[in-house]
Specification:
By secondary structure, the chain is an alpha+beta fold. Helices cover 20% and strands 23% of the residues. α1 (90-100) packs across α2 (136-146) and α3 (267-284) crosses α4. The chain has helices at residues 90-100, 136-146, 267-284, 320-343, 356-359, 361-365; strands at residues 2-3, 6-7, 9-11, 24-31, 36-53, 60-61, 74-81, 105-107, 110-112, 117-119, 172-181, 188-197, 254-261, 296-301.
Length: 366
Amino acid sequence: MNIGTMKIEFKTGENNLLTDVKGLQVGNADDSDLKSGVTVVTAQQPFAAAVDVMGGAPGTREIDALASDKLVTHVDALVLSGGSALGLDAASGVANALRAAGRGFDVAGQNVPIVPAAIIFDLHNGGEKNWSQNPYAELGRQAWASASANGEFKLGSVGAGFGALTPTVKGGLGSASLRLAVPGAADIMVAALVVANPLGSVTVPAAANFWAAAYERDNEYGGLGVAQAAASNPLHMPPDKPRSQVPAAGRENTTLAIVATDANLDVAQLKRMAVAAQDGMARAIVPAHTPLDGDVVFALSTTHGSSKRASGDMKTNHSPQLQLLIGHAAAVCVSRAIARAVYEARSFAGDLLPAWREKYATLLEA
């Protein structure tokens, strides 16, 4: 890709995961009976973050604190959860664990962990929902405790993506990364983590091909390529998701994303990164950002405000051209992560929809 006279190279990160942004840790916890779960993104040090909301039915916690004019400029963790509004309790479990570990914003000698969160609706996916004690705080605690520094984590039916659905196949947890090689500057890592549970479809009508096929790298979601024009009709409305005894008008959905970079972006610049990353949803889901989706994108930087500033060991990327590249890379990563979430999903007893691999098994064997 060329920006002015600069030739930029995009390469997939080492693990093709959010944790290719060094310092980030991802933890997952899920319950197979509940058919739901929680995903936590954290780090050893607080990180700068921003948010953009484009869905018409979001469920969130503490996102107002992420505005550029607010007192707290860094957060301790970001939480993605199933359970609709009830799943926001997952952030309480994470906050409690962080406080016990001595983490949080110092207020008069007290640690107050800052843990923004967002949820998907997965209360009608075939799981056991008749619980009397909200399980999400404990799932949040487990997810935070499982966050590992080794950089690897599973995709598909795991964490907050465990019970996710699309209109035709199961949704899931996905991730992707890109390394930007910029002449005359340090490489920049950009990555995305998503929970794909959209009203819109991630595959073209009556075919296995992903809407995000044009962005695929190294056959990461099957290598089927772009669908024939006859199949790829963007005006085609996908079927209703299965909702036992729930009218179509009561459908609830949502795709969540966290995009991350090691570039030194402040909160205002991270906001623009989050806005750009929303385009990745629109390229991978048709239709996207509907009144019945609660689509939310968080953006974070692991280096902004870091103590490395004094040593000069920071990636200062304030130019509009570099911000453009980072936003574009974030959108591409989101599209790929959505397709990977569906591609990696697995089938379990009691599922209302098949996994993509199960539905298209004969295609994969060909």
